[in-house]
Write a structure and sequence with these properties.
binds pyridoxal-5'-phosphate, seven-stranded mixed β-sheet, about 400 residues, Aspartate Aminotransferase, domain 2, 14 strands
Length: about 400
């Protein structure tokens, strides 16, 4: 549920305010009874009606609409520059709501590097329902033309991608896909709206695992869809209520709180990641560093154009192959060996056997000498020392 109330209570025109101000205020009016500056966690599952079908404040039943979730939805819609936001119980639930827009027999083109769970949802769940899909190298617009069929209706990709950190030119892909009559969905989980706003570059919808940078503290699982496309907004709103995989009030509060500090956290994530990239580049145990901030990264120029910084995710390959990658992942102390990403603490993982195991054997399979780190906001000297020491053991 979105729209209706002012995005910035007490402010005439939300768009005149900067990102950081909107992250703190958009959709979050002061409590009209107490003046509280923090959006309350509204636990009520039902809301009083003044007459039959006349809800007092527009809320009827909490699956359909909840004030805390509503604030969260308005805030993320403002940050992504879209008209409507919808909050779900997880990133995959948000993706599922969008994918239900497609019908049996429709075809979807998926970028050939993506979160393994996204691939699994498209291939194993929606595939069983009749959705056809194929993986495409979206860095080459010709490949969209080559893969396009009369039933293709949607192109879906991440940029930067998980875990190879490939950069896709959002504006270019949108131009090609719109010309062909399709819709574009961008998973903006890695970049966040602070670094990149796909809707302003032509995307029809943005999806997030809010579990990552939006929440930012590894304490909430969630997902959002933001769109300005009328048909998609109507569809996602309908599915959100009809299926019911909504974000609960406490989860909504946690993401809303996380988003208030998104800008400052992202600045630190990016700064720390750049220092880690300096350490890894040229290190004799590292055969390749994948980071869009590197001048020799194939997507660097596009990243400079469409992102305001290069993010906190860094992937790299080890000269010692899989054995070295596994040993490294188990040798760090400040970087915790764990799945997930985007929170204040640094994490290290082996995508091949952890987050991307479900893509094994597919076009999205990742190399087994690959390590992915989510660079946190700790003291950068500690992060450098930790990785240096661990690299010396592999
Ligand atoms: N999109 C990306 C890029 C992800 O990395 C993930 C999870 O890791 C998801 C979507 C799925 O989100 P969730 O785990 O919140 O369901």
């Amino acid at each position: 549920m979105s729209g209706g109330e002012p995005l910035l209570s007490g402010f005439e025109d939300p768009e005149e305010y900067g990102f950081e101000t909107r992250a703190i205020r958009a959709g979050q009016p002061h409590d009209s009874r107490t003046g509280g500056v923090v959006t309350a966690i509204a636990l009520s599952t039902t809301f009083a009606q003044d007459g039959i079908g006349e809800p007092r404040f527009g809320y009827e039943y909490a699956r359909t609409g909840n004030p805390t979730r509503h604030a969260y939805e308005q805030c993320i819609a403002s940050l992504e520059g879209g008209s409507d936001g919808f909050a779900f119980a997880s990133g995959l639930a948000a993706e599922d709501a969008l994918l239900r827009y497609l019908e049996p027999g429709d075809n979807l083109l998926l970028g050939d590097d993506a979160y393994g769970g996204t691939f699994r949802l498209i291939d194993k769940v929606h595939g069983r329902g009749g959705l056809q899909s194929s993986a495409v190298d979206l860095t080459d617009p010709e490949s969209i033309h080559n893969a396009w069929t009369p039933s293709t209706r949607m192109v879906w990709f991440e940029t930067p991608t998980n875990p190879l950190l490939t950069i896709i030119d959002i504006e270019q892909v949108c131009a090609v896909v719109h010309e062909l009559g399709g819709l574009v969905v961008v998973d903006n989980t890695f970049a966040t709206p602070y670094l990149q706003q796909p809707i302003s570059l032509g995307a029809d919808a943005v999806v997030h695992s809010a579990t990552k940078y939006l929440g930012g503290h590894s304490d909430v699982v969630g997902g959002v869809v933001v769109t300005s496309h009328e048909g998609l907004a109507e569809h996602v709103g309908f599915v959100q209520n009809a299926v019911g995989a909504v974000a609960g009030p406490f989860d909504s509060y946690l993401v809303l709180r996380g988003m208030k500090t998104l800008a400052v956290r992202m600045d630190r994530h990016c700064g720390n990641a750049a220092t880690i990239v300096d350490l890894l580049s040229g290190h004799n145990r590292v055969s390749k560093v994948l980071y869009p901030g590197l001048k020799d990264h194939p997507g660097h120029d596009v990243a400079v154009r469409q992102m305001s910084n290069f993010g906190g995710m860094v992937s790299f390959r080890l000269t010692g192959g899989r054995e070295a990658a596994e040993k490294l992942a188990m040798s760090t102390r400040v970087f915790t060996l764990a799945e997930s990403l985007g929170a204040v603490e640094s994490l290290i993982e082996h995508p091949g056997v952890m987050t991307h195991a479900s893509a094994a054997g597919s076009a999205l399979e990742v190399p087994d000498d690959l390590i992915r780190v989510s660079v946190g906001i700790e003291s950068v000297a500690d992060l450098v020392a930790d990785l240096e020491r661990a690299l010396a053991t592999v």
